[in-house]
Amino acid sequence: MNQLGKGTKRISVLAVLFFVSVLAFGQKIDLTVLATSDVHNNYLPYDYFSDMPTEQYGLVKLATAIEAQRQTKQNVLLVDNGDTLQGNPFGEYLAKNPPQRGQISPIMRLMNAMGYDAMTLGNHEFNYGLDYLNKVTSGANFPVV
Q1: What digits encode the pLDDT tens for the residues 78-124?
Q2: Does residue 45 form part of some domain?
Q3: 11, 40, 50, 80: which has the highest count of C-beta atoms within 10 A?
Q4: For the chain, what is the domain count?
Q5: Residue 61 burial by CB count (10 A; 0-12/13-18/19+): exposed, middle or buried?
Q6: In Å, how far are 50, 51, 73, 86 from 29, measured between CA atoms?
Q7: What is the DSSP string of 48-110?
Q8: 66 inside domain
Q9: Whole-prediction pTM value?
């Protein structure tokens, strides 16, 4: 093995030992992970198909429950698992009227206000094309992966 290979191997071993020691002596914390998934553009407690209010769903309804968890727990991580931007007539309307430069889409404003820490993209995020997806996610105050 050449000198560069030996040096890289030594650095890798030292890095692993360092991180193992940090984990072994690190302070234990409790982490609460809250996740939403398959929101399908149901932000409000409203059924756009029947054109009536509903108590069955709506991301804004979860805001109270999420805030309650944050009040009682110290370390709370809030993530969305995708399939958020598509799914009802409101989503169709938003896709046909995307945010313009400097504007933030309603869903990103809501998710920012709720304090999301991260969002992953689901297959339905791509339904309206990459241009729309980029316009919407550019307003996020959190990583979108």
Answers
A1: 999 999 999 889 889 999 999 988 899 999 999 999 999 999 999 99
A2: yes
A3: 80
A4: 1
A5: middle
A6: 46, 45, 11, 36
A7: TTTTEE-SS--HHHHHHHHHHHHHH-SSEEEEE-S--S-SSHHHHHHHHSPPPTT---HHHHH
A8: yes
A9: 0.78
